[in-house]
Amino acid sequence: MTLQEIIDLTRRRLGNYELPCNWTDQELVDYCNYAIGQISRNAYLFEDAYTPAICNITTVADQIDYLLSTDIVELRNIRVTGESSAITQTGTGLNDLSICGSYTHDNTDTVYLINVTTASTTDVFKWSDDSGVTYTSSVSMTADWQELSHGVFIKFTAKTGHTATDTFTFTVSDNSNQLMTLTSVKEMYNVIPSWRMSTSDIPIKYLLDYRRGYISFYPPPDDVYLINMNVLRYPATDMTITSMSGQTPEIPAVWHMILVDGILYQAYNKTGIETYNERKADRHYGMFRLGINDINRSKIINVSNKQGMTPHEGNI
């Protein structure tokens, strides 16, 4: 269902689909976003290792702590996938290029060239991953992460203001896709009291500060590494009241009816003679929780069905 269809169905369930409305569209959409967030936290519905702004970190030499995206519900595993040289700019224009990614070109170095070809209301660039032998041309800057090749992304912070003919160059090397190990502050201070002042090297362990949303690496990185995280996350974007018929929740359609119960229990908790109904709020909250349990059961069944059978080591 689209967001509009979900809101319309909710209004029919509320018996409030004609003016005057006791609940505005904004209220119902806010309830919908909150319900989606609850499902994301409790059913771990969205697993992601691809979205650049959420799943990738580019280290800075000797910097230990990095802020995680607030869209992450849980971090499942983390790998050092590649090592990058410093970005070299040829030219004197705006220097706002950054890189991230999950490097996938095994045992091979890749030399990237990014050349600004047009400086206009939206600047344009071309890029090469073979030292300039061939180029992908006419790529407009978006001020967001843009994919090149082999899992590498770049981002120009600004869409305009660059200088035509300026070139940016960097080389990415394979780093064996090394899996890092989760540790704790207690363990680190017990084993290596001065761990935050250790000699820098390739990170092999990580720590999480759930209160402030940071991740810390040990040993401190000695270079620019492309780190990829497999995470459970919240939806990429919230629903809005603008063009509701053009929006569909990221949650699979088979679970959309659970969203309706998630909206209804909040709607019946709204203060007011025409809106508050404790009995109905409790009933729909119970149905909403049962729906989340149903999602979790379905995930367990799907995962178990993918497991290969092992020898029973018994007699037939």
TrEMBL record:
Pfam families for the chain: SU10_adaptor
Name assigned to this protein: Putative structural protein
